[in-house]
Amino acid sequence: MPSIDHSPVPWRTAVKIATGAATPLPPSVVPSSEATGRVLAAPVLARGDLPGFDASAMDGYAVAGRGPWRVLGQVYAGGPVWPAPLGAGEAVEIMTGAVVPAGTVAVLPYETADLNAAGPGPKAHIRRAGEDARAGDELLPAGRLVTPAVAGLLAQAGADSVTVHGRPTVRLVVTGDELVTAGVPGPGQVRDVFTPMVSALVAAAGGVVTDAVLIGDEPELLAAALTTADADVVVVTGSSSAGAADHLHGVLNGIGARRLVDQVACRPGRPQLLAELPGTRWVVGLPGNPFAGLVACVTVLGPLLHGLSGRAAPDLIRLPVTGDLRPAPGVTRLVPVRLAGDHALVVPGGRPASLRGAALADALAVLEDGWTTGIPADLIPLNGLNS
């Protein structure tokens, strides 16, 4: 068997490999009410003019010509359309969203209305038909994430269904004889933190955890968990290092996996990996220490899921970072930081096994070899991971 190069790749190289490894999953048509958090695979066109009619933008009076004006009646949103054009000097009381009568030159808001004035004033307070879009215009391009605002626009436009990329499915395999799932751990035990943490990250990145299993440190159990998984991605925690209980590398060799990332030159999180299984499925290996596992999540798992779901990579913030840290020659350090206006402050507690610092942080700062306090660094926001 040929030797395997276990040399760690630079952190940015690992992110780039994971980002480009996968293509978006095949698209499908779903109800717009179920599309939030997914990515449009086709443009959305306006089915009609937006707005579809001239509508009042205020509660007040629709007026025609110059004043003074005589009020003829009332028009309500959703009520009957005023039956005839308004003539000069005529007005109707009108509610926000109601169809303005033909002949209306302006709506006078209640707050400033003077029906005896000579002119309607400089602002019409009318939403004109088609001022947002005309029928057939592209409202949203392919590749747009369906956010709450997008969901509202889809409803406003009458788009009851949309074409979106598939949502990546994830099986989570948490390894370790020492793990417990409830209560305070006893001597020699630790709580499973990966199931809640990785599930939240997967959801934030556009995927869904279809099942999560805890298994002991036995290679046969791990091989079975990988080969029977009916998911796009299998995330394995706690078996990616080189210890006696770390079997992921050997199991991957035995099932014909192709490794793209095998160790990353970062601290914490060096023993992480990304591999492709036969049948275009993916394996992500996370270190067993919780904060190191979180670093691996933002390094390879998040970018892989973005690629599968069709999401663009999130923009990084860049700010000066201040803090008292010892240098780590030859590696990239990822440390928790809090935003403080025009800079970021290192949060204590960024040890591999501790999540306290990350839980109190706004972002992870990417500190390159040679960084010293005050030098700008890229920041990976943690809001989506901590929510």
From TrEMBL:
* Span of domain MoaB/Mog: 171-307
MF-aspect GO terms:
metal ion binding; molybdopterin molybdotransferase activity
Catalytic activity reads: adenylyl-molybdopterin + molybdate = Mo-molybdopterin + AMP + H(+)
A Gene Ontology biological process term: Mo-molybdopterin cofactor biosynthetic process
This protein's pathway reads:
Cofactor biosynthesis; molybdopterin biosynthesis
Q: Does the keyword Metal-binding apply?
A: yes
Identify one Pfam family in the record.
Answer: MoeA_N
Record function comment? Catalyzes the insertion of molybdate into adenylated molybdopterin with the concomitant release of AMP.
Task: Please state what the protein is called.
Answer: Molybdopterin molybdenumtransferase
User: Which source organism?
Assistant: Actinoplanes friuliensis DSM 7358
